[in-house]
# Entry
Amino acid sequence: MEFLLMRKNIGDKKNMLFADYLPAELHTCKSRWFVAYYVKNPKTGKLHRKTIKINRIKSATERKKYGRKLVLEINKKLETGWNPFFEQEAPKSYTKLTDALEAYKNMKHRELTSKDSLRTYDSQISILKFFLTDIEKTPDLPIISFDAHSARRYMDYLYNVRKLSGRTFNN
# Structure
């Protein structure tokens, strides 16, 4: 995702060509050091400032190293679509979908006793994992990114490529 932005005034929408966020920056003042970034609040649709204080680190050089590392990590997360507002509401929404499928499979193995049911769950999960890793090439897809469009592509794959019958398609 390319980030195009002119930052003369944060509130001035004429200066923003595209932004769901403003990248993190390290701010060093005499009395406090902090990392600040802006991210769009999904409820209001406006950019909201988030700050992380790093004064607790005594050495200035160590504080600067930590601040730069933190800026890089936050910017990488922001580029992939991370939003701290979503994380507050649903902390597991950025878990990888393949990891969630594996956890679900393990849960079903503990709950169910029918071998046919377990075989069906295993089969459906392995097909979805194959679709994510080999067809879509997104093995690290977060749960929150699997939307209706992704589900339609998966259902089309099942129907057109795997040639599943209408009954199995709607199961």
Summary: The chain has six helices and three strands.
